[in-house]
Amino acid sequence: FHPEIAVILNITPDHLDRHGSFENYCAAKERIFAAQTAEDCLVLNADNTPCEDAAARSAAKVYWFSIEHPVPQGAWLEQGSVVYRAAEDAATEYVMPLRGIPLKGAHNIENVLAAVVAARLAGVPPDVSRGAVESFQAVEHRLEYVVTHNGVQFYNDSKATNVDATAKAIAAFSGGIHLILGGKDKNSDYTLLSDLLRERVSAVYTIGSAAAKIESHLRGVVSIYSCETLDKAVASAAAATRPGEVVLLAPACSSFDQFENYEQRGKVFKQLVKDLRD
After folding, report:
1. Which of 160-164, 181-185, 273-277 has the lowest mean pLDDT?
2. Using CA atoms, how far apart are residues 135 and 132, in angstroms rounded to an integer?
3. Could you give phi then psi for residue 252, rounded to 5 degrees?
4. What Cα–Cα distance (Å) separates residue 175 from each residue in 24, 113, 201?
5. CB pairs under 8 A, 24+ apart, for 120-129?
6. Of 275, 160, 24, 271, which Cα lies nearest the Cα of 179?
7. Are strands 144-149 and 152-156 parallel, antiparallel or unpaired?
8. 246-249 sheet: strands from edge to edge
9. What are the backbone angles phi and psi of residue 147, rounded to the nearest 5°?
10. Which of 6, 152, 181, 263 has the greatest number of CB atoms lying within 10 Å of its CB?
11. pLDDT digit string (tens) for 49-62?
12. What strand order describes the sheet that includes 81-85?
């Protein structure tokens, strides 16, 4: 496998039940650039320490993206705009306004920056990238808006199958979140969510086989309601919310204890939410 342009969006703990350690998981992700040469390009997240560390092990030309600061070559945010620079001594190109990104969450801004870099490396003009981003519609099960019921917004992020993805989903909202967590554990550390939960989450509703572990990790951090199943969690959250609040399915777990996959879990969630209106 030898890509001319390879991209790693981030490296955060996931699938540790399968890989055994975070180091093994990092090594698996880094295989994407193992066969690259100095003629190839590697796009990395400058705001993610494991990605920064990976750069030293790559033979390719490294390009960066960052939502926090300028990068030597790659894409970043500057005065409310997405900009790109092909090399340290090259001029900075304007790509698009930040407000033109139609997706919620800082992680989706990172995704756009990474896509801009890859597209420019492939020869795509900035105005074409801008048009593609501005017309892009959210993918199903990825921070997907479902419906507003009694003034409460419901979001389906069933694809948030690890702690980092759930943290990004929580961070996309300012507060008033009623969060559904749980499923099949991946040897995850749910205490990493503690600060965000204190800041933005009103209550957690646990489901699935990981519920007891999640509750033990988060006890005392936030109000927790043990619901066992998704239908009970949706009903409990809907009953507890007030207008202006959010019910968010972002489980931080895989789905295989109660569902065939995350897609089925997301579809069931959406149907349960729509049934509230009937």
Report:
1. 273-277
2. 5
3. 65, 15
4. 35, 26, 6
5. 120/75, 120/84, 120/86, 120/93, 121/5, 121/41, 121/43, 121/63, 122/5, 126/84, 126/93, 126/94, 126/95, 126/96, 129/95, 129/96
6. 160
7. antiparallel
8. 144-149, 152-156, 246-249, 177-182, 201-207, 223-228
9. -170, 160
10. 181
11. 999 999 999 999 99
12. 5-8, 41-45, 61-66, 74-78, 81-85, 92-97
Amino acid at 228: E
How far apart, in whole angstroms, are the C-alpha atoms of residue 274 and residue 233? 14
* Residue carrying the six token digits 């407000």: 99
Region of 233 (left: φ > 0; alpha: ψ -120 to 50; beta: rest) is alpha
Task: Measure the CA–CA gap between 141 and 277, rounded to whole angstroms.
Answer: 20
Sign of CA dihedral 3, 8, 11, 15: negative
Q: What are phi and psi of 105, to 5 degrees?
A: 100, 140
pTM, two decimals, is 0.74
User: The tokens 């239908």 sit on which residue?
Assistant: 231
